[in-house]
């Protein structure tokens, strides 16, 4: 078993970002292994899932202690996600046997990354527009079993096949089904259900033999302490600043995986960056003096402060 110091360093950087924002773990770790270190896609996905099993409980424990978890929602999500996570790992196993399968896996991974990037962008919009409505308490929410199980099933199959989706994808689906819940409560519930979800996907990967333990150990050594440190620093860098950077990287990786050539990818990324900066200028209006800017409604101000306090959520 070979432990790679460069993978440890890369995992530490990504783990720090995950600790600060709660997003981007699988969506950044797996592309790093494939694009930077040349790990085969099926091995990168499986090794990342096993390492994530060691990372997830840290964040879940924090939210359980803060009582921002609805265990009934967790139960319905797990009911849908765990069986489908095994199924996703099995599909990955079947795909890896064909000669062209690694390309097919990369295309599936790229599609999942693009969906995740879109989901994160959509979440920014929803968070910006829903400051007045997020007044529900997580323990007062009445679960909607059929919809919640369906969310778990979608997340389970995607995570089992690609290691992407438990944070950026499922949290947005939960936002639509439970729009009154605040971000920290959704984060806590989603992060807690992700523990058995990633555990099931990792067991499936172990059963089908794609895990490379040297890669997994390197990821764990770098990411686990970095996640903790990132969580400690999360209040100094609100996720509304860090998440756009993560979304940009996720989208770039997804476009590369689905087969976009390098020149086209460069122009697309330039266009995305220009659009992002233009939207930020239109919303933030940094040239205006603070006293001239429209004041936030009390509910929006409270939501903004809450976001800064809990910016470690997925």
Q: Which structural class do you get from the secondary structure elements?
A: mainly alpha
Round the Cα radius of gyration to an integer and report it.
Answer: 19 Å
Major beta sheet summary: none
Which segments are poorly predicted (pLDDT under 50) over 5 or more consecutive residues? 296-301, 306-314
**Whole-number total of structural domains:** 1
Assembly type of the chains comes to: single chain
**Average residue pLDDT:** 76
Helix content: over 70%
Structural summary, described in words:
The protein has 314 residues and is mainly alpha-helical. It has one domain (5-309). Helix content is 75%, strand content 0%. The protein is built from 12 helices and no strands. It has helices at residues 5-21, 25-36, 41-65, 71-95, 101-129, 145-162, 170-177, 183-208, 213-233, 239-257, 262-284, 298-309. It is globular, with a radius of gyration of 19 Å. It starts with a helix and ends in a 5-residue tail after the last helix.
